[in-house]
């Protein structure tokens, strides 16, 4: 179950039975109790933790591997009372050593960035989160995805993401509220999903052959959401920032997009929004 001590504490592979303790650790850092997100991460990722000798968890990290090429890092948390003892850095190093992929990806809060840089992550961009009730939307040309679209969705995703996300994307029915596709002359021109989080619906992933198609997907997904939406935008894409502002969304917070190891594979010019910032 464990084979390494970090700052005197043993690392443990967590399972869904640890979910309440993960939520409590998140609360300690003023993170909202994102139960659905954690449940998905337990299904598709490797969740590592360090127990707090006084009960509950002292630290967590989730490493989700996509084939042999990319690991997405998320939910890096250390309880306030255990910070600055090396638990965060040690746990992340442990997860990276076990992932065995050529690259890793994450988005870093200001708290985490110095630690990630020390471990060898490089900043490659900025991710800005926009939220709110979307207004003034015009419908685009997308349609709801049918089960028969799945092979084409997986093929386009593998080409753009550069690593297989089959396990994640085949959870379309149970996890996503909506999943839409845009048809092009030679096959799929794009696809997009939306999933419900605690207080909003996240518009992601959006993968498209160009920005116009991506914006159509965002508008169509947002049109069918009741209540506020959230979009995580790489600020190197001004057209997406403009879309968010034009439709009444406001900027909440920003994180630094970071990569580790080899340059990320695929064609990221066609990757418009991540599934979530813990997954890429
Ligand atoms: C970011 C976070 C995970 C770091 O966890 P941590 O256990 O404090 O991390 P570490 O102890 O490994 O490293 C933090 C710093 O403490 C220093 N440190 C480590 N051991 C130490 C020790 N024994 N004594 C003093 N300082 C120490 C490290 O050098 C590091 O300094 P740096 O940030 O200047 O590089 C934690 O602050 C946290 O949970 N923050 C809130 C949630 C969050 O923002 N998570 C990141 C999401 S991307």
Helix-strand blueprint:
Blueprint: E1 5-6, E2 9-13, H1 19-28, H2 35-44, E3 46-51, E4 57-66, E5 70-78, H3 87-99, E6 103-108, H4 113-119, E7 122-132, E8 143-144, H5 150-161, H6 166-169, H7 172-175, E9 178-184, E10 187-196, E11 201-208, H8 211-223, E12 229-234, H9 238-246, E13 250-261, E14 271-273
Parallel strand pairs: 5-6, 11-12
Antiparallel strand pairs: 1-2, 2-3, 3-4, 4-5, 6-13, 7-12, 7-13, 8-9, 9-10, 10-11, 11-14
Bound molecules: coenzyme A.
Estimate the mean pLDDT confidence: 96
Say how many strands there are.
14
Q: Give the ordered list of helices and strands.
A: EEHHEEEHEHEEHHHEEEHEHEE
Low-confidence stretches: none
Cofactors, ions and other ligands in the entry: coenzyme A
Q: What is the third-level CATH name, the topology of the largest domain?
A: Aminopeptidase
Task: Assign a percent range to the helix content.
Answer: 25-40%
Structural class: alpha+beta
CATH class call of the largest domain: Alpha Beta
CA-atom Rg in angstroms = 19 Å
How many angstroms separate the termini? 28 Å
Proportion of residues in extended strands: 25-35%
How many structural domains does the protein architecture include? 2
Number of helices: 9
Shape: globular
How would you name the CATH homologous superfamily of the largest domain?
Gcn5-related N-acetyltransferase (GNAT)
CATH-scheme architecture of the largest domain: 3-Layer(aba) Sandwich
Q: Could you give a short account of the major beta sheet?
A: 14 strands, mixed
């Amino acid at each position: 179950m464990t084979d390494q001590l970090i700052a005197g504490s043993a690392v443990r592979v967590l399972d869904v039975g640890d979910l309440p303790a993960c939520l409590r650790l998140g609360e300690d850092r003023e993170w909202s109790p994102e139960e659905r997100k954690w449940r998905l991460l337990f299904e598709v990722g490797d969740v590592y933790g360090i127990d707090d000798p006084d009960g509950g968890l002292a630290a967590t990290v989730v490493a989700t591997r996509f084939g042999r090429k990319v690991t997405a890092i998320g939910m890096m948390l250390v309880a306030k009372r255990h910070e600055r003892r090396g638990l965060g850095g040690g746990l992340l190093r442990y997860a990276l050593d076990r992932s065995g992929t050529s690259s890793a990806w994450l988005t870093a809060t200001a708290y985490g960035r110095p630690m990630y840089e020390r471990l060898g992550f490089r900043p490659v961009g900025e991710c800005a989160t926009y939220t709110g009730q979307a207004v003034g939307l015009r419908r685009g040309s997308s349609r709801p995805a049918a089960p028969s679209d799945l092979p084409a969705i997986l093929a386009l995703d593998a080409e753009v993401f550069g690593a297989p996300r089959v396990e994640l994307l085949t959870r379309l029915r149970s996890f996503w509220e909506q999943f839409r596709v845009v048809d092009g002359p030679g096959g799929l021109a794009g696809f997009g999903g939306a999933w419900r989080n605690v207080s909003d619906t996240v518009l992601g992933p959006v993968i498209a052959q160009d920005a116009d198609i991506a914006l159509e997907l965002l508008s169509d997904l947002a049109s069918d959401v009741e209540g506020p939406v959230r979009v995580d935008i790489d600020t190197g894409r001004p057209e997406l920032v403009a879309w968010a502002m034009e439709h009444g969304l406001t900027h909440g917070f920003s994180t630094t997009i970071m990569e580790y190891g080899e340059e990320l594979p695929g064609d990221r010019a066609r990757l418009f929004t991540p599934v979530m910032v813990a997954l890429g």
